[in-house]
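Sequence in, structure out. Go.
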Amino acid sequence: MFTFADIRDIAIQIERNGEAVYRRTAKNAQDLNVARMLEWLAEEEARHAQWFESLPLLRAFEPQDDQIHNLGRELLQGMMAQQTFSLDPARLSDASEINALLRDAIEFENDTILFYEMLYSFLDDSQTMHQLEQIIAEEGAHVAQLKEIIALRGD
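Output:
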């Protein structure tokens, strides 16, 4: 069983991991426009993490079995510590075209949504479920924004 605090912490970690990959790749980008796009994507990930950090915890959770709860939390956090889903730094650094970077970012956001939807299936508290629905909606809005940028660029 996971609490909303667990899920929020994981969401923050995922966003921070994405931010770090984008920033690292931007530093190595040969094309200035690609570097700028990667920096913008990094800033978006940082903004997402801040958004998750600002979400209030609606209720305290008292697990009936602290050991199992803590083990589950540690396992999940350990799995997510380095997770960047579809953000492959090598692929990003090879991308010389901004729309390709945007498509990779969309793939990352979609992978994140799928992960949150998987976590949703483990929840049984309606308040926590509602909060996770908000997170999924925010990630969906990011996908829509990235697609809009691609459309405006004419691809």
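Check: The two ends are 43 Å apart (CA to CA). The domain at 4-53+66-153 is CATH 1.20.1260.10 (Ferritin).
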